[in-house]
TrEMBL record:
Disulfide bond in keyword set: no
Domain (Aminotransferase class I/classII large) ranges: 37-387
Keyword Transferase: yes
EC number: 2.6.1.-
Superkingdom of the organism of origin: Bacteria
GO MF annotation terms: pyridoxal phosphate binding; transaminase activity
Alphabetical list of InterPro entries matching this protein: Aminotransferase_I/II_large, NHTrfase_class1_PyrdxlP-BS, PyrdxlP-dep_Trfase, PyrdxlP-dep_Trfase_major
Taxonomic lineage of the native organism: Bacteria, Bacillati, Actinomycetota, Coriobacteriia, Coriobacteriales
Uppermost EC category: transferase
Protein name, entry field: Aminotransferase
Keywords on record: Aminotransferase, Transferase
Swiss-Prot/TrEMBL cofactor(s): pyridoxal 5'-phosphate
Family: Belongs to the class-I pyridoxal-phosphate-dependent aminotransferase family.
Amino acid sequence: MADGINSLMREFGIDKSPIREVMETTMSLKQQGYTDFWDFSIGNPEVPTPPEINESIREILDVYNSVDLHGYTPNDGWEATRRAIADDLNDRFDANADASDLILTAGAAGALTSSIAALTTPGEEVIVLTPYFPEYRLYIQAWSCRCVPVPTIAGTFQIDVDAVRDAIGPRTRMVIVNTPNNPTGAIYSEASLRALGDMLRAEGKRLDKTIYLLSDEPYREIVYDGAKNPWVCGCYENTIMCYSYSKSLSLAGERVGYVYVPKAVHRHDEVLEALHGAQRAVNTITGSLIQRVIERCVKARVPIEEYAARREIIYNGLTEIGYDVVKPEGAFYLWLRALEPDDAAFAERATKERIYMVYSGDFGCPGYERLSYSSVSRERLAESLSAFQNLWDSYGGYTW
Ligand code: PLP
C-alpha cells in the first residue's frame, strides 16, 4: 500500500552511517558514566569561541529592540552583516564582493543544500572527490541528482584532474571541492585548482554548458605551519563558495554561514535569483541574533594553536609507532591507513583498546579511519598513544 512516506528521506533517517554509529556508541558510554575511552568520532569544535562573540551578544542585547533582534530577517540575511563579510573578503582576497553577492545560511550545510538546489536539475551529476564528507551524497541525492565519486591521488589526496575529466559527461553539472579537507587534512594546491579550473572551462566549452565548482570552505582559517588555503574563486570563474563559522568561530550549534557568488560567475544575477528561490523553498536561513554577532566579529578567530598542538601530539605519536598517516595541513582530522584492509573490522578491534574512530566506507575510500582531534585534549591524546601501541602490537603492524 502506498503510504506517502518518501523512501529516500526515510533511508537517510534510518541509515546507520559510520559517523552516526560511532557517535551513538560514545554518547551512550558517556551517559552510562564511562569516561575512560578516546572519542575520535566527532568534528565538534572544542576550542572555546573567541571572547568577542559573547561580549558582542551582551552588547547587542542593549542595542536592538526585540523585533530587530528576534524577528524575521530578510531571506538572504541582514544587509549590514553581508556588507561586513563582503568588506572582509575584499580586504583579504581582493574579491570585489558586494553585500548583494552573499546569502547568509544555516552553516555550510545550508549553503551547500541551497546551492545544489539552485544550480542542478533532476538527473544531473555532481562529482565529489574521494575521500569526501559523507553528507554530500545526501545533499545531492535529495535533489534527484547522482553523486559521482572520483578518487584523489593516492598518498597525497590531492586533486587528480585527469580522473575528474574522465568522469565528466553530458549530465555533469557541478564538482564539489573541500580545502582544507575533511577527512584528510590536505590543502589542495593552487596549481591543481587552477588546472581543475582550466579543465572545467574546456569541458564546459566542449559540452556547451556551465560546469560549476562548489567550494566548501568551513576550515579555511584552520591551517598549520603558516600554510595558505588558496582563494578558490580566483582559480575558476564559475566557482560558488560555501562558508561556515562553525569551525573558525566554534559556532557549530548556532548554524551560521553563507554562499558567495562572485561577479565572474556566468549569469551571475540569475544564479543569485535561483539561490534566493532555494533559500525560500528550503529555508536554510540563519537566526537574527547570530547574524548581528557576525557583523561585529568577521575578523575574530579561534586560537588555532590549540589544534596545532594536538596535531603534533597525535601525528608524531602515531608515525613513531609506525602508522601510515598523512600530516594534516589544515582542518582537525587525521586520515589513518587501517592495519587490515577491512576498515570496519579494524575500527571494531580498536574499541577493545577503548579507541573510537570512524571507518572510511562512507567517505568513499576503503581501508582508512578518520580521527577527529578537535574534541580530545592534549593530555588525553598523549595518553591514547599507549592504546594505539597495543593495537599495533596486536596485529604486529600492517597486514597489507
Ligand atoms: N562541509 C564539511 C567538509 C564539513 O566537515 C562540515 C561539518 O563538519 C560541513 C560541511 C557542515 O558544516 P556546518 O556545520 O557549517 O553546516
